[in-house]
Each structure stands twice: as structure tokens, then as C-alpha cells.
Amino acid sequence: MRKLILATAFVFGGTVAAMADDIIKVNTAKSVSEAMDALEAAVGNAGATVFARVDHAAGAEKVGLTIPANQVLIFGNPALGTPAMQIDPRAGLFLPLKVQAYEDENGQVWLAYEDPKETMDDLDDVEKAPVIEKMRGALAKLTSVAAQ
């Protein structure tokens, strides 16, 4: 049954999005490195700036521990972030945006990110601002492109 569901998902766009609380997940058949390389390229092509790429598995190795492949890309675009911070400067606590690529216990690779609308829902009027929908759309598009 699981294979049928996954096959159907790949036929309809190659990704499955799932929401658990405020985290949106998109699966991919790529490795963590391949997915992050694709995401980094997509971010650059969209005109955003990559600030950092954090390799959590490499960090774990440095202290003698192991975890499955796990990386985070930190990126942003002042055209999206600045309007949110104009409404409430505390939006800067949640910016720049981040996407994580990780391998789960079954070997499945996921791209995951926090939904900006949910993340900023306690800020003064930020969650209702049109820029939040733009952030949500950008994250959905970038992760979809990277997953394929």
C-alpha cells in the first residue's frame, strides 16, 4: 500500500507534502546532499541570498557521534523579510528562512521548513500580511523544485 501511495505521489509532481504542527515536509528520492545542492541552486536562481549551509551530521562526527545525513540551508531576500519586520521588528527572530534536508530512520529524505504563517502568528499583524503568503509560496516552490 505504501508503495502505491508513493508511486501515486511521484506521478502527481514527484513530491508529497505533509504537515505536522507547523512543519511542512516534502519528500524526495535525492540524497540529502543532492537535495541541498538543488535547493541552493533554486534559491540563487530566485534572487535570494544563501547565508549558510549547516551540516549537522558533520558536526556530530566532530564530537564522535553519528546521525543520519542532515543539513540546513539558511537564506533570505530583503524584499520579503523587510516588509515583515516593518510590521513587527520581532519578525527578525524568524528570519532568514531555513530549510532542512534530512534522512529519516527509514532512509527517506525529506525537505522540511516551518510555515511562516504559523511561526509568526504571535507577532502583531505579521501573519495577516501579504508578504507571509509570498514567503509560503516561495518556500513551497523552492522545496518542490529541489525535491524533483
Automatic annotation (TrEMBL):
<protein>
    <recommendedName>
        <fullName>DUF302 domain-containing protein</fullName>
    </recommendedName>
</protein>
<feature type="signal peptide">
    <location>
        <begin position="1"/>
        <end position="20"/>
    </location>
</feature>
<dbReference type="InterPro" id="IPR005180">
    <property type="entry name" value="DUF302"/>
</dbReference>
<dbReference type="Pfam" id="PF03625">
    <property type="entry name" value="DUF302"/>
</dbReference>
<dbReference type="InterPro" id="IPR035923">
    <property type="entry name" value="TT1751-like_sf"/>
</dbReference>
<feature type="domain" description="DUF302">
    <location>
        <begin position="54"/>
        <end position="116"/>
    </location>
</feature>
<keyword id="KW-0732">Signal</keyword>
